[in-house]
Amino acid sequence: MLNTRFLTLALAGVLAMPAQAHITVHPDAGNADTYFQTDFTVPHACGAGTATIALRVQIPQGVHSVKPQFKPGWTVTTRSRKVDPPIKAHHGPDITETISEVEWRGGPLPDTLYDSFGLIVKLPSGEQTLSFPVTQTCDKGAVQWSDAPGGEHPAPTVRVTTGAQQ
Fold this sequence. Notes:
Blueprint: H1 2-16, E1 24-26, E2 29-31, E3 35-42, E4 51-58, E5 66-68, E6 74-87, E7 95-110, E8 115-122, E9 128-131, E10 134-138, E11 141-145, E12 157-161
Parallel strand pairs: 2-12
Antiparallel strand pairs: 1-3, 3-8, 4-7, 4-10, 5-8, 6-7, 9-12, 10-11
């Protein structure tokens, strides 16, 4: 009887816990050397009763063209890094600087709602997997989504393919 009661209480406790949902990117695969539009989806805040007030996405090396989505109620800021050696541009001057980080700040986005934050990027050449570490800042705390796949807080990844392998 005691074992049954303990098992019932333990199961109820597990079922009452919120599922650990991750920040995801969709679509999560694109063709090399193409412009790629994707969304980073925030399914929850940093904890029950908190709200997301900022989302910062780090842009991996090799991605040299980045355009963030405008979101009403949020401000967008970017940080840049030097490109050395410069990259020949198809139109206009050579590329000597690129966006290394995009941050949306505002909201707030309550824990009971979700939202997506979009980017258009030019994917690099060659098959590879790009990791986009994300910092989710809430009114009470922050979460670093930067672990390897399978980790507790995995970074969103985009698979770069050649041809129609998506």
